[in-house]
Design a protein that fits this description.
Helix content: 25-40%
CATH class of one domain: Alpha Beta
Number of helices: 12
Radius of gyration: 37 Å
Number of strands: 12
CATH topology of one domain: D-amino Acid Aminotransferase, Chain A, domain 1
CATH architecture of one domain: 2-Layer Sandwich
Order of helices and strands: HHHHHHHEHEEEEEEEHEEHHEEH
Structural class: alpha+beta
Distance between the termini: 110 Å
Length: 352
């Protein structure tokens, strides 16, 4: 007979609930401490964990792009001579200049290859005249493949070669030491090239605005040499005048990778010595006038009365705005934070 006398129920041990109660009490105190924090501490905690890019203002973002552009141009050392020659003389690289004869030869070679492949396949399967006739008939009626090179649109090498500015969001901290400004006239921004005995003005998209004879090196039939030039200009159609903002190439020597100070030095020495502002029978009354860079230490004088400052420089054009160039900026096509723009209406507000 079994000795089992039944289950025995005992009260739970009281000391086991004490650590849980103490833990709950500690959590309650922490929750109360968090709930009593003010809004400023919560906002500060949010900003601490917020992404640094989201916290950046527009001016800070522009400054960051400016630093990245300076670092990028240190790493870029492309073949500027070949690039300048292609732009000025309107030539393209070998892989982009496929002639119609070469395209036709490629199509004929492809067609012959298809015929040979079809005949060999039929011969391996059955050596009958009927089968060969069917294959020949199929090859003759088979549609020709269109060459990809015909449908491929040639890239305009003159497009987006002008260096454009960004709107200045705030005055850079190093404005007085690392920047120089140009007082920009009203007109059409364009790139002017001289070579092969003619001068061509092109828009930002690379479209030709005008072909004419000029006093630029190799820019007229009477002044034909092996040289070529590339200029960044603003065209005043009323007075038939090209105001030169920047110079990218002179007499076949490219200066894309030179800083702003060097380019502006060439702009003043090379163009003024050639008296390109005189109109005669060679340039068909077109004039080229280089603009003078202004030190940023004189920015306040320009901001007070831009028109009077332009007259003191010897010019009489209408002002469109101010272009600020970073002194270390190389010339690169497209928009860049290393060149900043302030319109005429915003000069007083931005540079007060």
């Amino acid at each position: 007979m079994s000795d089992f006398k039944g289950f025995t129920f005992e009260k739970p041990i009281s000391h086991q609930s004490e650590p849980q109660d103490a833990h709950l009490t500690d959590l309650s105190l922490k929750f109360n401490r968090i709930s009593t924090d003010d809004n400023d501490s919560r906002l500060g905690s949010f900003k601490h964990f917020r992404s640094p890019i989201a916290s950046r203002s527009r001016s800070e973002a522009q400054e960051q792009r400016r630093l990245e552009a300076l670092e990028l141009q240190k790493q870029q050392r492309q073949t500027s001579i070949n690039k300048a020659r292609q732009i000025a003389l309107n030539t393209t690289e070998d892989d982009e200049s496929t002639t119609d004869d070469e395209q036709q030869e490629e199509e004929e070679e492809e067609e012959e290859g298809e015929v040979v492949e079809a005949k060999e396949t039929a011969k391996r399967s059955r050596d009958s005249d009927d089968e060969m006739a069917e294959v020949s008939k199929y090859v003759k009626t088979m549609p020709k493949k269109k060459s990809k090179s015909k449908n491929k649109k040639k890239k305009n090498i003159h497009a987006n070669q002008i260096m454009y500015s960004e709107t200045m969001e705030s005055v850079p901290q190093d404005l007085l030491t690392d920047w120089v400004l140009m007082i920009c006239p009203k007109g059409k921004r364009c790139m002017v090239t001289s070579g092969s005995g003619e001068t061509i003005a092109r828009s930002r998209a690379g479209n030709i605005l005008a072909r004419f004879q000029s006093r630029l090196p190799n820019g007229s039939r009477t002044n034909r040499t092996s040289d070529f030039c590339i200029l960044d200009c603003v065209y005043d159609a009323v007075h038939w005048t090209f105001y030169v903002l920047d110079i990218m190439c002179w007499r076949g020597y490219p200066i894309f990778d030179c800083d702003t100070n060097f380019r502006h030095f060439w702009l003043q020495t090379k163009l003024e010595s050639n008296e390109l502002d005189r109109s005669d029978g060679h340039n068909q009354f077109y004039k080229f006038i280089p603009l003078k860079p202004v030190l940023t230490t004189e920015t306040q004088q320009v901001a007070d009365d831009p028109e009077q400052y332009v007259q003191n420089q010897g010019f009489s054009y209408q002002i469109d705005g101010l272009l600020f160039y970073h002194r270390q900026a190389h010339y690169r096509g497209g928009s860049t934070p290393l060149v900043c723009w302030v319109s005429r209406d915003e000069i007083q507000n931005m540079l007060k």
